[in-house]
Amino acid sequence: MQIASLGSGSKGNATLVKLDSTMVLVDCGFSLRQFKLRLERLSLSPDSIDAILVTHEHSDHSGGVARLASTYDIPIWSTRGTARCAFDDDFACHDLRGGQWVTIGHLEVLPVTVPHDAGEPVQFIFKDSKNGKKLGILTDTGHITSHISDAYNELDGLLLEFNYDEVMLEQGPYPFSLKQRVGGDLGHLSNSQSMSLLRQINKTRLNCLIAAHISENNNCRNLVAEHLGQLNGIPEPVLADQETGFGWIAI
Ligand SMILES: [Zn+2]
Ligand SMILES: [Zn+2]
Known about the structure:
Blueprint: E1 2-7, E2 14-19, E3 22-26, H1 32-40, E4 51-53, H2 59-62, H3 65-72, E5 76-79, H4 80-86, E6 94-96, E7 102-104, E8 107-113, E9 122-128, E10 134-138, H5 146-151, E11 157-161, H6 166-171, H7 176-183, H8 191-200, E12 208-212, H9 221-229, E13 238-239, E14 246-250
Parallel strand pairs: 3-4, 4-5, 5-6, 10-11, 11-12, 12-13
Antiparallel strand pairs: 1-2, 1-14, 2-3, 7-8, 8-9, 9-10
Bound molecules: zinc ion (2 copies).
């Protein structure tokens, strides 16, 4: 299984997951033009995407999905709550439900319900049923529930949100209401919240760790790296970037 990102952060997200001949896209928060330019960096075209999975309706995740899907006739998978908030009524989506595995090509996909201020948000765990390897994606989550730490235990790969540093958010430029939103129970994961998840889960199989959705206003990459440096027994972390994302990484 492999993962790549076309960009990660509050200005747009798009993540690719590939297993054998199946390639799925998780979210598209970029315009069609931007998306194609970013995809070209990996020498890919939209025709090679088998499905688009949508985590939730916020525009940095769903903003480019409808146009991409209708232009290239790519099936969309989302929860009903997300579909209702993100797309027109006549837009056909395959249904996802939190906690229920689905099969898309060679990939097994588990949507995991997360606390975030959206209609019916989920994040994803992907499984290769041939060798049992698992890859988790977890961003746009307000806090770590026991449901999440159970689901994201014993993974081989993990892309994890490191959205903000508490002090930088508090002292930063956001208006008070937005600070409350980002730092609240239905907002985003702080560096320390993500570190606490990493401390809780069994990491013996973890060979790929990516820090993602890093805020350009309320966090800095050095701080994220510093936090991760405190943890023993983890692979060398990759920090995803808003502009460039990251290239293919094998799990
Ligand atoms: Zn987001
Ligand atoms: Zn969001």
